[in-house]
Design a protein that fits this description.
A hairpin with a 6-residue loop joins β7 and β8. The strands form 3 sheets. Strands 1-2-3 form a 3-stranded mixed beta sheet. Strands 4-5-6 form a 3-stranded mixed beta sheet. With about 200 residues, the protein is of the alpha/beta class. α5 packs parallel to α7. The chain has 8 helices and 9 strands. It is globular.
């Protein structure tokens, strides 16, 4: 019997509410970053939503704390949450599919979305949440984004995803011979080509 080519099945019918993290960890704009960091550490989460008058006004991620406080040698207890939050907090309806959440994150170049239900914030969904459920889906969206952004430019367009050679996650994938490779595998491939050419 002729062999049937295997095509990986990408699960797209997963709803945001099935993947989101809930309840939402929150802080006020006047809280200092040290207090916010302690909250995040205790809850073992990477973000906190800044609320004012029971409405979400922004979000602080662990990346914000590193880039806006630690890297600038500021004292966390002297910096307010409202000063470093990213605003506005972009949201998605809980009944939407995660493919739509992934598209929004790629489009806005963000890693997290607030999840709303009947105009109330009920959770947070992140890129890592989506990748954990459907890594193939995120790879496809990343590749499409890379193809769109690389048009009309000669600069290399890095993207995040799984390396086609070593299957490890990388934030600096580049396309080489129709495969997306991480920096280490690109180096190995180039060295191998040089070695082969020297033996000819």
């Amino acid at each position: 019997m002729p062999s049937i080519p295997f095509e990986p099945v990408v699960r797209t019918r997963v709803l945001v509410r099935e993947v989101m993290n809930s309840p939402v960890l929150s802080a006020t704009p006047d809280e200092d970053v040290r207090t916010v960091s302690e909250k995040m550490t205790r809850a073992k989460v990477g973000s906190v939503v800044v609320m004012k008058n029971d409405l979400p006004t922004g979000i602080i991620t662990d990346g914000d704390i590193v880039s806006k406080v630690v890297s600038k040698n500021l004292t966390p207890s002297n910096v307010r949450a409202g000063d470093i939050m990213s605003a506005p907090l972009r949201t998605i309806e809980s009944e939407k599919e995660i493919i739509e959440a992934a598209r929004q994150m790629v489009s806005h170049k963000i890693k997290r979305l607030g999840v709303s239900y009947k105009r109330n914030l009920v959770g947070i969904i992140s890129i890592s949440d989506i990748v954990a459920v459907t890594p193939e889906l995120f790879d496809i969206i990343s590749e499409k984004r890379a193809m769109m952004t690389s048009e009309g430019t000669r600069q290399p367009s890095y993207l995040a995803g799984y390396c086609d050679h070593c299957n490890q996650w990388s934030d600096v994938l580049l396309e080489l011979d129709n495969r997306f490779l991480c920096e280490e595998c690109r180096t190995e491939t180039n060295n191998s080509e040089v070695s082969e050419s020297s033996q000819e």
